[in-house]
Amino acid sequence: MRIAFIADVHEDYNHHHDFVKCFSEFCEDNKIDILIFAGDTSTGAVKTLYFYRQLQKSCRAKVMQIPGNHELYCELKKNLAGERIQTMEESQHYFERLMQDETSLAAHPIETKNWIILGECGWYDFSFDPSYPNLDYQKLSKKKVSLIRWPDRKFIDGNIVDEKLDVARTQESLDRLEKLLAAAKKTNKKIMVVTHMLPTPQCIKKWRLPYFNTAANYLGSSRFLELFKKYDVEMNICAHSHMRMSKEIEGIRIVNVSLGYNYQWKHILDAKAEIAETCYILED
Ligand SMILES: [Fe+2]
Ligand SMILES: [Fe+2]
């Protein structure tokens, strides 16, 4: 069986390319049986699911997925008085829809001859911050990155700035994953976990940009690496940071398969070549 992994396709931002055609041809050329998207395929769950349904019509591979943060984005709504209405409930609804969908890797782990492959979105809890766990969340909530720069605040949490919501979301994600890991351990197969978020700050390339260190907090949680170690996970496919890498960290092979925004690509005019370069293929 040949399984391909990719993420951060952002097909609505990268609108110069026909991704249905590109992925169908890529899977045909490489004899891919299952194609797994690790989140941020489009903005909002409806667009993302529509893309998967369209792709499935012409793609030889079975399309599977886990949600990223962009799948949870909802349009900011205003009531008659012009006040913003919370979008948090809507985001949660779409998250659950993706997690329970027939394409969900979280609901349908894959078993090959030697591997069991699990999926979970993951989240961030500011454990990438050097001063973690002694954090002042109120102070963090007032930082510019949190208030202005980080769009999750607006489009997932209904413009509510409260970093503790993310801490709770991370805990829920860890709890779901631990249940899957406990069951996977019993199969005696090698365990691979697909997450949208990063499991350790060791996956981050350090860039000297304004607010970069604060923004790095929003890329994942170190508690995922701890959980991977507890259950002897051999491999993690991750994304979200748009920083492709493949590294062995504390005995775990971690591969970032972010396709990223068009301007970040090497082959700006050739999506198929960029996909081929980004995908990780497991043959088993
Ligand atoms: Fe992304
Ligand atoms: Fe993301």
UniProtKB/TrEMBL annotation:
InterPro entries, per database record: Calcineurin-like_PHP, Metallo-depent_PP-like, Pantetheine_PDE
Residue ranges the record marks as coiled coil: 160-187
Keywords on record: Coiled coil
Source organism, top-level taxon: Bacteria
Membrane-crossing segments per the record: none
One GO MF term: hydrolase activity
Record domain Calcineurin-like phosphoesterase: where: 1-243
CDD domains: MPP_superfamily (cd00838)
A UniProt-annotated Pfam family: Metallophos
Protein's recorded name: Putative phosphoesterase
